Task: inverse folding
């Protein structure tokens, strides 16, 4: 819990911070926010991540010093593990034998850390880092503000997903006061992709269809589309949400070919439709409005099995309520 984290930061001095592979804005922003907090307290800290930092987050202060690490080389007083469901998620060998501090806002997180601080009411780990800064009596520097703001903006879909609370906006307001620039950070995330994203989007959108009810939209992406577009990882971020812009569409299924007869599937829904239940039926998981799974088999057959399951989830939600707000939450 928070008090344990405060105590260990006060009593130790040599830290590393890591997050999951293919980190999102919360992973990178929270790691760097904590990094700047530790430095401001006179501690030693470094951020270590398996792989490259995605382009959207490279303009954050401290991002250029993040080290690509696959295996831990030495003993730290403690290693903070940000936004990970288990100790394997960072993809860094040797983490198990360190003193680890698990910081996450997903209720499903395993308590794998030596110390565990899980707050499922936080919109993002970024919100927790802000709380930590306050609890430890630290000052919100401009660097901390920019990094934590990035975490909030990306995890809440620019403050419109269902995890956005009055606290989230209060924290965001404090961060802006401390020097975070919403327009600059928004541009880094939403207007900073390579052209290959547009090429890939054009091809994927060409496959968009709806079922007979008009409520479920499907999208497909082949390996060939990715190749023709010259696309890189991350170029397809958010494609699954595009059909949800239509009023009558309440669920979207985005199937991405990753091998022979093998697909990664992203699912999204609006309101009370529990799309996580659908993902679980196929061995996947996620949140109520955002989930994912991996599936093997014939494309048409698997797509219709998934669409049928989504249809049943829609019927179940229509049967038990009339709520229909626009919701969503990210999946790690
Ligand atoms: Mn998060």
Result:
């Amino acid at each position: 819990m928070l008090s344990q984290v405060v105590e260990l930061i006060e009593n130790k001095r040599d830290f590393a911070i890591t997050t999951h592979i293919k980190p999102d804005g919360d992973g990178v922003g929270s790691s760097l926010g904590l990094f700047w907090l530790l430095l401001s307290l006179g501690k030693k800290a470094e951020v270590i991540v398996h792989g490259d930092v995605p382009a959207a987050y490279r303009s954050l202060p401290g991002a250029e010093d993040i080290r690509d690490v696959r295996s831990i080389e030495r003993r730290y007083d403690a290693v903070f593990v940000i936004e990970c469901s288990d100790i394997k998620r960072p993809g860094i060998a040797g983490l198990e034998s360190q003193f680890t501090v698990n910081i996450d806002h997903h209720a499903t997180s395993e308590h794998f850390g030596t110390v565990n601080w899980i707050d499922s009411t936080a919109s993002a780990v970024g919100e927790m880092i802000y709380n930590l800064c306050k609890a430890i009596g630290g000052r919100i520097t401009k660097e901390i503000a920019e990094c934590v703001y990035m975490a909030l903006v990306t995890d809440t879909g620019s403050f419109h997903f269902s995890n956005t609370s009055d606290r989230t906006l209060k924290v965001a307001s404090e961060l802006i006061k401390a020097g975070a620039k919403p327009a600059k950070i928004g541009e880094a995330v939403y207007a900073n992709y390579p052209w290959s994203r547009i090429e890939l989007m054009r091809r994927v959108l060409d496959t968009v269809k709806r079922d007979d009810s008009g409520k479920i939209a499907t999208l497909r992406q082949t390996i060939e589309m990715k190749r023709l577009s010259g696309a890189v990882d991350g170029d397809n971020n958010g494609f699954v949400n595009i059909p949800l812009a239509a009023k009558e569409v309440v669920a979207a299924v985005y199937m991405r070919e990753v091998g022979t007869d093998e697909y990664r599937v992203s699912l999204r829904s609006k309101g009370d439709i529990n799309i996580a239940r659908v993902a679980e039926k196929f061995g996947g998981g996620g949140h109520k409005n955002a989930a994912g799974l991996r599936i093997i088999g014939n494309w048409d057959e698997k797509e219709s099995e998934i669409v049928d399951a989504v249809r049943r989830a829609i019927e179940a939600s229509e049967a038990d309520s009339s709520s229909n707000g626009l919701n969503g939450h990210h999946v790690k």
Observations:
- Residues 50 and 159 are 28 Å apart (CA to CA).
